[in-house]
Amino acid sequence: MEANEIEKENVLLEHPVLVQKVKSRFGKSIIETAIFRGEITHVIETKDIADVCNFLKYDLDFQFNFLSDLIGVDCRPLNSYFEVVYQLYSIPHKYRIRLKVRVKEGENVPSVTSVWRTANFAEREAFDMVGVVFEGHPDLKRIYMPPDWEGHPLRRDYPLVGYKDQYNPFGVEKK
Amino acid sequence: MAETLDIRTDNTELTTREITLNMGPQHPSTHGVMHLILHLQGEKIMKAEPDIGYLHRGMEKIAENLLYGQFVPYTDRLDYLSSMTNNLGYVMAVEKLVGLEITERAKYIRVIVSELSRISSHLLAVGAWGLDLGAITMVIYAFREREMVLDLFEMLCGARLTYNYMKIGGLRGDLPPGFKEKCAEFIKIFPKRVDEYETLLTGNRIWLQRNKGVGVISAKDAIDLGLTGPSLRGSGVKWDIRKDEPYLVYDRLDFDVPVGTNGDCFDRYMCRVTEMRQAASIISQALQQIPDGPVNVEAPDIVSPPRQDVYNNMEALIHHFKIVSHGFKAPVGEVYASIEAPKGELGYYIRSDGTEKPFRVKIRAPSFVNLQGIDPMSRGAYFADVVSVISSLDPVFGEVDK
Hints:
By secondary structure, chain A is an alpha/beta fold.
């Protein structure tokens, strides 16, 4: 979204603090800001995500004490990176905000388990399904798939029917 | 050998060591295929580790390969005890993505069926809970009323478990003749039936001993762990999406959000019981306020026209064919829509790349997140308390494992 369009939407926004204060505090860490259907998304530098989350949780203007969801997205083949999406909610203020980080294959994301304990399962799920590695997670292991599973099912290059093995005769032949 | 005998005869020297007990995956009290690894010191729980994934069907992967409208029946299979709310969460997210405002009548019908769904889900939660703790009468009573709700749903859509009643832009059909009367009749007798459950359980000495002070979690911890629904409100946090971010017509209806004080299993039970009463009151208000009118939006690109038109009208046939075979294109963007499902916050995150199929669908399943509460709730408790704790969280494994 173009900068002036964001400004235009800003006027219509219900809670402009979510854009303005975050931008003034973390101007350098924010790569871009988008507003779609009234939902605010900030794309944050990967290394700063834990700090931003920590600030948003404890600052009195925000109090994002509730992590609704943490989502791993494989953005290939359109882009060459993976995204981790943080869906935050503030119970005292009733705000919602979305943060995002982008990582390349092989890069790690700082874990937010120290900010919200609920991130534990969510990060394990993102690791299991998309293969994003979270640095500082207390027990990063698969959650849905068996421990000896190969590959990450929600990646774009993973076939819908799975790979062929003794249990799955209809799967795709592994190269 | 001799040493072991010494220990047995001399009680002062009794030594214990931590043992690991596997509860499940096939265990009647885990409400599905959950494998709970319990670290026990004697009969005390040191740590409870849920091991899940036995029912993983890859819903999100399936969603990426289907048209938007085709995924609705799959959502039925998530929380299969309240399929209506699963449908609702998904169609609301898609409607938000494509910017579709549904009709007033459809909104009211959606409220009525979600609240009926809440009643049937809580009935099963409380009934199965009673069953787990030995109050077997309760489950029979609960199923008696659940049967009435299922009969109502059968009138609506012909199905009793996987309804697939909601569609993007509206509903699969209007209320059938006689539904309102039958529903009103149910709402009239239901509060008396809740009184019956309460005489069975609320004052019951065994029920109190098994639930009061068991599985306590503080409000701060509950928020930190992401608990939602009755599991969060039992700890005294008054947060209900129906009140705090009203969707459909909840802001026009008068209802209370029950909260607990101690955050124990009993408070979570009381929250569910009170929510059932409130749901009945919501339904009766909605039945009075419901306006006449169409149930589907007139948006030929997204919502297929009425069946009668498809047979008689050329344009309608073309639109119908187009929607069934190609679906519709959604604008590029991402949305997150969440509703208050019986178990908690049910959220759908949908990202679109501008094609007919979603780029990514992520389901925020309340049971999955609530499951993290098992460990802090059962630490230091006795083994038998784990059964109450699991029942009080009311996990459904279709939803946990996706």
